[in-house]
Write a structure and sequence with these properties.
8% of the residues lie in helices and 56% in strands. It contains 3 helices and 17 strands. It has helices spanning 36-40, 69-74, 120-131, and strands at 8-17, 23-34, 44-52, 55-59, 94-112, 139-142, 145-165, 172-176, 178-184, 191-193, 195-202, 206-216, 219-228, 234-244, 260-270, 273-285, 288-294. The protein has a 17-stranded mixed β-sheet that branches. Strand 12 (206-216) and strand 13 form a beta hairpin.
């Protein structure tokens, strides 16, 4: 450990684990600054945070009463029935500012289960298909239940603000000034993102964004979207100028890798039903060309 422990420090070979010994944060080095006044007020408010080759695992085990691992790590020792909830406790306020991430790897594991309206036979079939990798969502066994896994690899990012907990809102927020990443929200292929700019709002059950901008190897687009962790409902709107088909195969693997064009693209994913709509399209595949609206 180096630095001034009253204001900030740099730590090499960082490892933060939960009560079971599973990692929450592992990194080559972590440096950060903080204010003593904020700590006295039980606010975990960190600034100038620099993470070198971090592995961040955000994990919520199966079970209706389970909580996210970072909440368990930073929560108060006093049970809610004893604690005065009108007063601030450690873990109620977790805000990071001016975060730099170099070569990061983020893993999000959340509970997964088939739709409640399925019959027992349909439920068993849905579980078997998901665990065998026959569905787009990545599902793994965990204890007596199942988890959905989303990964972000080779991430380099400048993050002005990350709000994980705040007494004034239940919505968490990630502001990204620039970021490059290989995103794996589903089974491969992944999304290769050369740069991403925008704000992501999220809760324990969903994430949404509006007017974000993304640059991929053959594409440039602005987009809005929402993804529900609980039921996998996914809405996405992309305004591409241009869009390469190879870049959106992470959403639709059946798309040909060749082909490009300009279009407004809409995706609506509900259970086993997926709707694709292309508007104002001018697309080319080899020597073929098409334009107009498609659904």
């Amino acid at each position: 450990v180096t630095g001034n422990l009253l204001e900030g420090f740099t730590i090499a070979n960082v490892s933060i684990k939960d009560s079971t010994g599973a990692p929450f944060l592992v990194a080559d080095t972590v440096s950060l600054n903080y204010g003593l006044l904020a700590l006295v007020r039980k606010r975990l408010e960190l600034s100038d945070v620099r993470l070198v080759r971090p592995l961040v695992v955000m994990d919520r085990p199966p079970g209706d009463s389970s909580i996210w691992n970072y909440k368990a790590i930073f929560r108060s020792d006093k049970p809610e029935t004893v604690r005065d909830t009108t007063k601030m406790a450690f873990g109620d306020w977790i805000v990071l500012r001016d975060v730099t991430m170099l070569d990061g790897h983020i893993i999000m594991r959340s509970p997964w289960k088939p739709k409640s309206e399925l019959t027992d036979a349909q439920r068993d079939s849905a579980i078997a298909l998901a665990v065998a990798g026959k569905e787009r969502v990545v599902v793994v066994r965990r204890d007596t239940g199942y988890q959905k896994v989303i990964e972000f690899r080779s991430m380099n990012a400048a993050i002005p603000s990350l709000r994980l907990n705040h007494p004034g809102t239940k919505v968490r927020q990630l502001q990204i000034a620039k970021a490059s990443v290989v995103a794996l929200p589903f089974h491969p292929p992944g999304a290769i993102v050369n740069n991403f700019v925008g704000t992501l709002d999220f809760t324990s059950d969903s994430i949404w964004f509006k007017d974000t901008h993304v640059w991929m190897p053959g594409s440039k687009a602005a987009g809005d979207g929402r993804y529900n962790f609980e039921n996998n409902d996914f809405d996405l709107v992309l305004r591409g100028q241009p869009i390469s088909f190879a870049d959106i195969r992470f959403i639709m693997p059946q798309m040909p890798a060749r082909g490009e064009g300009t279009l407004d693209f809409r995706l609506r994913w509900r259970g086993d039903t997926t709707t694709y709509i292309a508007q104002k399209a001018d697309i080319r595949i080899d020597s073929a060309r098409a334009g107009g609206d498609f659904a």
